[in-house]
Amino acid sequence: MFNIILSIREEQKYPTVMTQKEIFNKTTMYAIFILFTALTIYPLIWLFYSSFKPLIEIIKNSLALPKKPTFDNYIQAIKIGKLGLYMINSIIYTTVSTTITIIFSMMASFAFAKIENRASSFLYNLFLIGLLITIQAILIPLFIAETRAGLTDTYFGVIIAYVAINLPLAVYLGTEYIKKIPDSFIEAAQIEGATYWKIFTSIILPICRPVIVTILILTSFACWNEFILVFILTASDRTRSLPVGIYSFSGPLASEYGMQFAALVIGITPMIILYAIFHKQITKGFASGAIKG
Amino acid sequence: MYLAVIAFPVMSSVLLSFTKYNVYKNTAVWIGLANYIKIFKEPVFWFSVRNNLFIIFVSVFGQIPIGFILAYIIYRKLVKYRNFFQSMVFLPSIISTVIVGILWSSLFSPIGAITKIIQSITKNPDYVMSIMTNKNLAMLPIGFVLLWMYTGTYLIIFLANLQNINPDVIEAAQIDGATNSQILTKVIIPQLYGVIVLTMILAISGSLKSFDLVFAMTGGGPAYYTNLLAIYMYNYSFIYANYGVGSAISTVMVFMCIVLIFIIRVIRSKIEPMED
Q: What is the pTM (predicted TM-score) of this model?
């Protein structure tokens, strides 16, 4: 036994010459990753430089770099496609929905995790069921209900739907996280006469920072990229969001490739910048969200 | 609010599917199974079911295994520049599905880069990429884009869980003289059974509800050959304003999802006793 340990240690110290098979394996592995990288980057680069080409150049030679880069496509896309307005709407939907989701989910999580009674466990299970329910299953009744309540085509109508859809996962993550906080923290605070509200704001929230960041990432990406709900619940330019605005370029404007490409670049760029800055937190957030979802 | 937006609609959706609903008069007439019989008779419904099953197939047998292999390579530090490669594989999944759909449909279009690249490789300037308009092949590019977009998500999930495995277990196996492939199949994979089942459930429910990508890429065309259940439901409810039939389709989707997840649970309970 001891000999084997020694031999492993030595192997690590003096790496042996790679056999042909190992070299082959290594090459294959790099090839796989380089292929994936190329497949990710090339379409984006092609899209980016194509968006600076006039339509004729795109149709004639779509691989070539632009001869005379022009911003016309962007000006047109923003003017005809009203992308500026949609961008503002997307920002409103994302920030408001995410903020409300975080506040509600943390309050609910605290109650579910630390206040034990029948009602709270029943309500918690109700939220868990929500994790399995798809948007399609609620789309038609939601649309009918919002139509009858006069909420379609309003900011409020979209935001309540976004909050409700994102709450189950947020509540689940929050509750599981708060459950791990020792009860003694809360008891100690109670002895000193702190109210539930005080405990929540000055003990629970600071401890929960990591899970709040996760919820923030998951919810804001979900809201920013959401398409079908906002597509159905809104009818006018005033309330539509960026994905819906960009989708309109694939309809009657589909042959206006230059404009379409510019619109796609406008849609992709904010996400890529955010990803470049926060990629560690983003991947972590997605990992913990998906594991538990 | 949560009840009003999620729980109540699910119940009413099932109820609606048995009625003929008039949204303008707000009247619903009970017509029993007529909506279901109507959709089961339509070939488009069966195209949609077939295409949804194809997407499930791509997710479960494409995204999950490839994602796992990539995660394993990164976990075992078999390549350099791991952070860079990991970000690159994951990058597509943060882009809005609608944008991905439009981007790839222009890449596959006659003016797109893929057509031009094939033209220059084959030295045939008249080559026209027709895969998107070929009714039998149009699902293939969609499958490819699905792999492109979602493999990174599974890579991240598997990587996070691989890193949670206690390294002592693997070291112990190494000391006992296990080879790398033995460690993979006897130590690592069994520890990930739960995660694999979970990713399969995620993949199935995600595949059944997929809508945006195909809606933006092909809109269900040519001639409904890439239609999905969700697009089928959308057309009935929001184009023809036939909410009864639309609800019947969404009920079928929920039912399919429950059945498939149930099947996976059964398979899992069969596998786990064998482990002991």
A: 0.84
Strand B19-22 relative to strand B27-30: parallel, antiparallel, unpaired? antiparallel
- By Cβ distance, the residue of B21, B97, B234 closest to A225 is B97
φ, ψ (nearest 5 deg) of residue B22: -115, 110
Give the up-direction half-sphere exposure of residue A256: CA atoms within 13 A in the CB hemisphere. 19
Could you count the other beta carbons within 10 Å of the beta carbon of residue B42? 13
- Which residues, numbered 16 to 45 in chain A, qualify as contacts with chain B under a Cβ-Cβ cut-off of 8 Å? 25-26, 29-30, 32-33, 36-37, 39-43
Angle (CA) A246-B151-A129 rounded to 5° is 80
Query: Which among A111, A146, A168, A155 is positioned nearest to B7, based on CA atoms?
Result: A168
For residue B158, give both structure tokens: 């598997």
- For A147, the token pair is 């139509």
Instruction: Nearest chain B residue to A39 by CA: give it.
Output: B148
A261 touching B, CB under 8 A? yes
CA distances from A20 to A15, A27, B78 (A): 15, 11, 16
8 A C-beta contact, residue B213 and residue B231 = no
Beta-carbon contacts of residue B134 (< 8 Å; ≥ 6 apart): B222
DSSP output for A261-275: HHHHHHHHHHHHHHH
Q: How far apart are CA A24 and CA A7, in angstroms?
A: 25
A24-41 pLDDT, tens digit each: 888 888 988 999 899 999
Identify which of A246, A212, A26, A186 has the alpha carbon closest to the alpha carbon of residue A104: A212
Q: Which residues pair with B20 in a beta bridge?
A: B29
Give pLDDT tens digits for B182-191.
Answer: 888 888 888 8
pLDDT of A1 reads 39
Looking at chain A from residue 64 to 123, which residues have their Cβ under 8 Å from any Cβ of chain B? none
Quick one: B123 exposed, middle or buried, by C-beta within 10 A (0-12, 13-18, 19+)?
exposed
